[in-house]
Structures are given as C-alpha cells and as structure tokens.
Amino acid sequence: MVINKSLESLYQLVHALKRQLHEDVEQLELDITPMHVRVIKIINKMRPCTAIDIATVLERDKAQITRLVSTLIKKGFIIKAPNPIDKRSSYLCVTERGMEIVEKLAVIDNAIQVKITKNISLDEIALFQQLADKMINNLRDQ
C-alpha cells in the first residue's frame, strides 16, 4: 500500500535526521541533548522569548520546557532577563557562550542541509516543502 510505504519513509527520514543531528551535536561535546539545541535555536531566533513561547513552538508542556531551560542556564548558554510587560515571566536570552554554540550549530545545520539535499533539484525541494507543510497542517487540524 502506497500510504503505508510513504509513512514508513517519513519515519525513516525523521529517524535518520535525528540520528545525524544527535551524532553531530555529540561531536561538539556540549553535554546537551538535541532538544536543548532546539531550545537554544528558538531563543536565538525569537526575540523576545519566554518559556511559554518555547512550549508553544515545540508543542510541549511548560514543566518539560522549564527543565530544559534550567539546564541551559546552569551550563551558561542562556540567561533570564526581567520581562518589563509581565513581572511573572522572564525573557530568555542566549549568552556569549551560547552564541558560540549557535554558530557551531549553524555549521552543522548547513552541512546537514547539503547532505540531505544532495542530488535533489530545487523544484523537488520546493515540492517536498509544500507536501511537508500540508502534512503538518493535516496533523495539527484535529
């Protein structure tokens, strides 16, 4: 059945991508997980950024995000800053040490991008993006 084969291909793609990212992050010897990496990237990209923002983007519960953020603060990759709009929350900011990680991650992302799109045309990449967006929207429209 074509649908089952497509679903299996998606599982394999996601697994291969996660494995590659995990291996690349491990080589940096940062002692953080790929989920920590995603959190650092979100904080760097989304300014200002709160823990609630991260929970929304990652579709995770706030308790899990709080643990991830706490670890990143302890390691000196991010800091909390006062939120002038809402005293009950804090903005999260990437530190200089964290920015070094962001730069290394950008190199990893570029290498993965080159590797994953090898022998694939720009038209095929655009089509894949359209299909992936539709599939994501289908899963979110429940």
Description of the molecule:
With 142 residues, the chain is mainly alpha-helical. It is 70% helix and 7% strand. It has a two-stranded antiparallel sheet with strand order 1-2. The model has no long low-confidence stretch (mean pLDDT 91).
List its traits.
globular; 6 helices; about 140 residues; mainly alpha; two-stranded antiparallel ribbon
Give a quick rundown of the structure:
The protein is 70% helix and 7% strand. The protein contains six helices and two strands. The longest helix is centred in the first third of the chain and has 26 residues, at 2-27.
Low-pLDDT residue spans: none
Q: What strand order characterises the main sheet?
A: 1-2
Largest sheet: 2 strands, antiparallel
Question: Helical proportion?
Answer: 55-70%
Class derived from helix and strand content: mainly alpha
Described by the principal axes of the CA atoms, the overall outline is: globular
- The fraction of residues in strands falls at 5-15%
Distance between the termini: 24 Å
The Rg value, from CA coordinates, equals 17 Å
Number of separate strands = 2
Count of helices?
Answer: 6
| Overall pLDDT score | 91
Oligomer status: single chain
| N-to-C series of helices and strands | HHHHEEHH
Write the layout of secondary structure elements.
Blueprint lengths: L1 H26 L6 H12 L5 H8 L3 H13 L3 E5 L7 E5 L1 H21 L5 H19 L2
Antiparallel strand pairs: 1-2
Helix pairs in contact: 1-5, 2-4, 2-5, 3-4
